Amino acid sequence: MGRLNQYLLKRSLINIGGLIIFAIVVLLLERLLRIFEIVSNSSNPAGDASSMVINLLPHYLGMALPMALLLGITITIDRFSKSSELTAALGAGVSLPQMTRPFMFIAAVLAVITLFVEGYMQPVGRYNYRQVVHVVKQQSFTAALREGTFTEVGNRTFFAGTEKAGSAIGPIFIYEKLKENGEQTGVRITTADEGRLIVREASNEPVLQLAEGQSYQIVGERQLDGDLSFSSGAVTGSVDDNMFRMRGDDEREMTSIELFQNRRGEIFDSIDTNTNNAALHLRLGRAVLLLILPFIAVPFGLNYGRNPSSAGIFIGVVMLVSLQKALELGQSLGASGTIPPWAGIWPTIIAVGLFAAWIFRKSAYKMGQPPLTAISFYLNGLQEGLKTRIKRVGTIIRGDTA
Q1: Is-contact 77 301, C-beta < 8 A?
Q2: How far apart, in Å, do the first and last CA atoms of the chain sit?
Q3: Cβ atoms of residues 367 and 307 within 8 Å
Q4: Rounded distance, CA 273 to CA 337, Å?
Q5: Which H or E run contains 206?
Q6: DSSP β-bridge partners for residue 336
Q7: Cβ atoms within 10 A of the Cβ of 244, count?
Q8: In sequence order, what are the beta bridge partners of 213?
Q9: CA 34 to chain centre
Q10: CA–CA separation, 211 and 203 (whole Å)
Q11: What span, in angstroms and rounded, lies between the C-alpha atoms of 16 and 323?
Q12: Phi, psi angle pair for 298, to nearest 5°
């Protein structure tokens, strides 16, 4: 690898790495609000939140890689062009395909990383994230008794009044959904003047001790079934030490190897064959897409002459977002059986590949301005025309006023 390619490789790696970190941080910001809401009742909020974030990183990394690769290469070539380094390299006899080699090397590495991230890390991370959420939601209601707030824990909703003498708090209101065979059969409402929360040392099980209360059970068409008054009572916490369900109920929790083995539906009966195969084709298609993106990003970043344009960055973002939505639509159509699972992914990938071949060939082997320069000039023309019309309208209005 020559010095020029080493230079381009270093510059692009810096841009791509920075964009990956930036994209992951931005994507996590929205999810953090939900994570904080989930762990608000956890006995270990910092640890649970950290575990959730770590398990979400593969998901957002898979989303960030294509965008970072396309924009990183486009920005590298754009700066390379505006500084006249591109003109000097072409004048020295270095062709555009030669300058694309370091980008192809990066794309190949990222494609392998994508296969591993989306094929193993994402499914396992998604399952672990859901497991942590399940554990947090099944934890005891020790944090539920917060003054003046309604808090839902499992099938119970708690409300606690103001703090009283000692460790007591009250009044207490508990709304509990009664279920039988997975269906709700009624509700139980419990009220008490005050309550105290203790934790049994032997089992570490939380118990809410109630004093001077009443309990009502409502079934059917709002029919009262039982009215119990008590001077003392207790409600046991909903601690669940059982394991979370086994991984594999959702195709997004399955590794690519498991999807491949289950392509005929012989291993995981709970997953439809079309859904299974559509997910597998989508993961493979995303990896192949990374190998195509350099041939689009390089032309998008080209700038010749004295009128540089950065339209490629904007068009690249719009194109990649549209492409992602098209692949998701294709996967959903394939999963529903409307079209074959492969037909929702690969025709789109082939179309992108043909577009990449056309625009790269036009940029590398034909003389003239880069393909996107005409678009930039057209947009500039529209802007100047709009300004001219606004000035004319202003002149007419001033003339009428005078």
Answers
A1: yes
A2: 71
A3: no
A4: 9
A5: strand 206-219
A6: none
A7: 15
A8: 192, 230
A9: 13
A10: 23
A11: 20
A12: -65, -50
Backbone angles phi, psi at 361, to 5 degrees: -65, -40
- Residues 187, 204: contact at Cβ < 8 Å? no
In the block, residue with structure tokens 């270990």: 44
Backbone angles phi, psi at 67, to 5 degrees: -65, -45
Q: Do residues 127 and 253 lie in contact, with contact meaning Cβ atoms separated by under 8 Å?
A: yes
Distance in angstroms (rounded) separating the CA atoms of residues 48 and 38: 9
Rounded Cα distance between 355 and 342, Å, is 20
Question: Residue 194: which of 155, 236, 216, 166 has the closest Cα?
Answer: 166
Per-residue pLDDT, averaged over 80-106, amounts to 86
Q: Say if pTM beats, i.e. exceeds, 0.85.
A: no
Domain ranges of the chain: 3-136+247-379, 141-236
d(C-alpha 11, C-alpha 80), whole Å: 10
Q: Report in angstroms the alpha-carbon separations of 161 from 32, 173, 194, 209.
A: 29, 9, 9, 15
Q: What's the CA gap between 223 and 218, in Å, rounded?
A: 5
What three-state secondary structure class fits 217?
strand
Cα separation of 398 and 117, whole Å?
64
pLDDT at 148: 67
Question: Are 171 and 148 spatial neighbours (Cβ–Cβ below 8 Å)?
Answer: no
3-state helix, strand, coil in the chain (%, to 5): 60, 15, 20
Amino acid identity of residue 282, one-letter, is L
CA distance 20 to 80: 21
**How many angstroms separate the CA atoms of 86 and 94, rounded?**
9
CA Rg value for the chain: 30
DSSP-assigned letter for residue 118: I
Q: For residue range 165-224, list pLDDT tens digits in order.
A: 656 777 888 888 887 776 777 888 888 888 877 656 555 566 777 888 888 888 766 666
CB atoms within 10 A of CB 226: 10
Confidence of residue 239 (pLDDT cuts 50, 70, 90): very low
Instruction: Write the DSSP string, 249-316.
Output: SSGGGS-HHHHHHTTTSSS-TTS-HHHHHHHHHHHHHHHHHHHHHHHHHHHHH---TTS---HHHHHH
Listed in sequence order, the residues at least 6 apart from 332 whose beta carbon sits closer than 8 Å to its beta carbon are: 278, 344
